[in-house]
Amino acid sequence: MPTSDIGLDKTLADLGVTQPEQVALRFAKIRVHFQEHFQTVHDESEWKSFRDRWLGRKSGVLTQITDNWLKPATPQLKRAVGASLNELRAHVESQIEARRAAIESGAEESALARERVDLSLPGFIRPTGSHHLIRQVFQEIEDIFFSIGFSVVEGPEIETPYYNFEALNIPEFHPVRDDMDTFYLELPTGAKTPLLLRTHTSPMQIRTMEKQKPPVRVIVPGKVYRRDNPDATHSFAFHQIEGLAVDSDITFCDFTGTIEYFVKEFFGPSVKTRFRPSYFPFTEPSVEFDVSCPFCGGTGTAAGGGTCSKCKGAAWIELFGAGMVDPAVYGFVNYDAKRVSGFAFGIGIDRLAMLKYGIDDIQVFFQNDVRFLRQFP
Ligand code: DAH
Fold first, then answer.
1. 92-124: pLDDT as tens digits
2. Which CATH number fits domain 133-373: 3.10.20.30, 3.30.930.10, 3.40.50.1370, 2.120.10.30?
3. Cα 109 to the center of its chain, rounded Å
4. Ligand 1: does its nearest atom lie under 6 Å from the Cβ of 323?
5. Residue 345 Cα, ligand 1 centroid: separation in angstroms?
6. Using a 6 Å cutoff on CB, does residue 182 contact ligand 1?
7. 321 C-alpha to ligand 1 centroid (Å)
């Protein structure tokens, strides 16, 4: 309602107000106007113009009443105008203050509502990953050997021919080197010794015995490299655990007992084991260790009939090479071959993992495909 509608721009005399009752009526109208306006005030900027409109010093409603109604009022109306104006002022001021407080707390509430953390929302799921199956199998094997007194040592993946071959009784031109097609490093001309990627973990037999007097009981987990063409069972990098036990009184029985214990712990107590004679330059006698096929129970026949696909009907699966340490090796590490004896073994981890977990392609270990990795949490 514009100010002119309630007669604020005129004097009471102009409005024809001569009696106190008429004054009261005029003020009642203004209250109605105030109430209407008051209801439209919801936020801070509306509140500010509302306040200026009613309490503004220059042209606020109350100032206009004072200037146009009170000051020029006749003496008999002045009291009535003054009293009503005071009441109106008190009402307007208290209402305006109350609305300010309401808007402020409302604003705080809505600000709070905006900031509130909704604890019912699910958080971001960060995949934590898991150990690679190869790592898990390493761990399983390490645990088994720990439990019978072996400790773990690790060695360099870049080796010299001396540790990788010579000190293991594999001289240059020995035909066994052909089985281990070797990656040699490109070195600056004039380098003292060639360097290669170790083809097996056996060099750590030498490094360990060089550092340590008997008794020795160690296992050596690690990566090894051979220049192989990749297929389902070959990779240019794979994993081994070397084992070495040397003491004053280690017999062939200790050797077979230890290996059998390990195999039964790893594959379960029902598997059978057997040796076949073999040849490694650093063991004498050397054996190839087999386990009865854990898939067909050593029968060679698959559960549903037909040939077992894992052992191809052979009932046995070749596991790894091992043997009694060749006395010639002790010569390279200054052990007295007459006083000490021991055994060594070299387990292919990838092969064992494939056997135990029914994996038929070694390549999956290196592809890092999460669909494979997730199957072994
Ligand atoms: N180093 C051999 C290889 O990689 C495996 C091996 C055979 C290790 C017999 C041994 C052993 O310690 O006694 O083919």
1. 999 999 888 888 888 766 666 667 777 787 878
2. 3.30.930.10
3. 38
4. yes
5. 6
6. no
7. 5
